[in-house]
Design a protein that fits this description.
The structure is a single chain. It is built from eleven helices and 14 strands. The chain is α/β, with parallel strands linked by helices and about 350 residues long. Strands 5-4-3-6-7-8-12 form a seven-stranded parallel sheet, sandwiched between helices. The chain has a three-stranded mixed sheet with strand order 9-11-13. It has a two-stranded antiparallel ribbon with strand order 1-2. The longest helix is centred in the first third of the chain and has 20 residues. The protein is globular. The N terminus is likely disordered.
Length: about 350
C-alpha cells in the first residue's frame, strides 16, 4: 500500500497483489484477509481445481500452472506484491517427480518472473518440512538447516530445494522473505491436506495405536496473518517460522485432545516404532501396486512424526507479531467445520 498526501488530503492507493495457488488452504485464507483490508487481489488457479474457498470473494482469478513461464508472466503483470503459496502438499504420489516439478521448478519460474518484473516484495510459503531438527531435541529455530536426507519423504526434500531455488535469486536483487508454516489446521481445508487428514483419521477411528513422536501445529488464521506480517514487517533475506510455541505436542496428547473435543475414542495403546514402520512399508507396497490409493501413513511421514520435529517461532512472534491461537480453540473449530461440511458426523 502507498500513502500519498496531496493538497492536504491523504489518499491510500492499494497495489494489486498476486497469490499463486490462491484457491488452496493457506492461499484462500490469505486472499480473504487481503480482501478484508481492501486490497485488489489476483489469484492463480489451475484448470479443474476446486475453487470453493474463493466463492464470494471479489478476487480476480487467472488460470496458470506455476511451471508455465508465459502464464506466470501474464499473471504477474501489474502486481507489485507476490505471495507464492502454490505447491504440492502430498506425502504420497505414484509419480514423485511431480513434487520437484511443482515445488522446485515451479518456484524457480515464479521467482525468476517476479525478479524480472521488479516486484516490491515476494513472500515464499515454505514449510516446517524444510526445517532441520536439533540433535538434543530442542525446538528448531530458523538457524537449523535441513538435515533429514535419510527420510523417505520426497515432500520434505522438495520444500527445502524450493527454498534454495528462491534464495539463489536473492543476490540478483529478488526482495525475498520466506515463511515456514508448521502443520496448519482450521476451517476450509476442503481437499483435505495431510494435516487435516491427520485429524479426520482420528475422528473416523482409523488409528488403532499411537506412535512415539509429535509435531508442531498452527492455526490457519495465524498462518495467514503471518504471511501478511511478513510482507509488511519481514526483513528481506530472512526466513520466519510460522508455528505456535505452545503447540509442540506429542501424537498421544494430540490424538487425546482431538478425541476429547470431538467425543470420540482416541488410540490408547502405543505401537513400537519398528512395528509401525513394518506396517507403513506394507501399506506403501499395497498403495503402489494394488489399491493405487494413498496409504494411511507412508514410511517417510512416519519417520518425520517419530522424529518429533519441534519448531521455535520466537523470531516471528517478536519481529512480526505472529498470533498464537490456543490449540484447543483451533482443533475445536477444525472438528466443527468437518462435521458441518459432511466430512465426519
Amino acid at each position: 500500500m502507498i500513502t500519498i498526501a496531496k493538497c492536504g488530503v491523504v489518499r491510500r492507493i492499494f497495489m494489486k497483489t498476486l497469490i499463486t495457488g490462491g484457491n488452496g488452504f493457506v492461499g484462500s485464507a490469505l486472499a480473504a484477509k487481503l480482501v478484508e483490508q481492501g486490497e485488489e487481489v489476483r489469484v492463480t488457479v489451475r484448470q479443474g481445481s476446486n475453487t470453493r474457498n474463493l466463492d464470494g470473494l471479489p478476487v480476480e482469478k487467472v488460470f496458470a500452472d506455476v511451471r508455465d513461464e508465459r502464464a506466470v508472466r501474464e499473471a504477474l503483470k501489474g502486481c507489485r506484491r507476490l505471495y507464492h503459496t502454490a505447491g504440492l502438499y502430498k506425502v504420497w504420489l505414484r509419480d514423485e517427480s511431480e513434487l520437484r516439478e511443482v515445488n522446485v521448478s515451479g518456484t524457480r519460474v515464479v521467482m525468476r518472473e517476479a525478479l524480472r518484473q521488479g516486484v516490491e516484495k515476494a513472500v515464499l510459503t515454505s514449510s516446517v518440512a524444510a526445517l532441520g531438527v536439533r540433535e538434543d531435541g530442542r525446538p528448531a529455530d530458523e538457524s537449523v538447516r535441513f538435515n533429514l536426507w535419510t527420510t523417505r519423504l520426497p515432500y520434505e526434500v522438495s520444500k527445502y530445494e524450493s527454498e534454495e531455488a528462491a534464495w539463489e535469486l536473492l543476490p540478483e536483487g529478488l526482495p525475498l522473505v520466506v515463511v515456514r508454516p508448521s502443520l496448519v489446521l482450521g476451517e476450509r481445508d476442503v481437499y483435505p491436506t495431510p494435516s487435516g487428514k491427520l485429524v479426520l483419521d482420528v475422528l473416523h477411528g482409523r488409528y488403532l495405536f499411537y506412535l512415539e513422536g509429535g509435531i508442531n501445529l498452527v492455526d490457519i488464521n495465524d498462518a495467514a496473518a503471518g504471511h501478511l506480517l511478513a510482507m509488511e514487517k519481514g526483513r528481506i533475506g530472512e526466513s520466519y517460522n510460522l508455528g505456535n510455541n505452545a503447540n509442540n505436542i506429542s501424537l498421544k496428547d494430540l490424538f487425546s485432545l482431538i478425541g476429547e473435543i470431538a467425543g470420540v475414542a482416541a488410540p490408547r495403546f502405543k505401537i513400537p516404532y519398528a512395528a509401525a514402520m513394518a506396517y507403513a512399508n506394507l501399506s506403501l507396497v499395497l498403495a503402489n501396486y494394488v489399491t493405487r490409493k494413498p496409504p494411511l501413513l507412508p514410511p517417510g511421514a512416519l519417520q518425520v512424526l517419530h522424529l518429533f520435529k519441534k519448531m521455535d517461532s520466537t523470531k516471528a512472534i517478536k519481529e512480526l507479531g505472529l498470533p498464537q491461537t490456543p490449540l484447543r480453540e483451533t482443533i475445536g473449530r477444525t472438528v466443527a467445520w468437518y462435521r458441518e461440511n459432511g466430512y465426519w458426523d
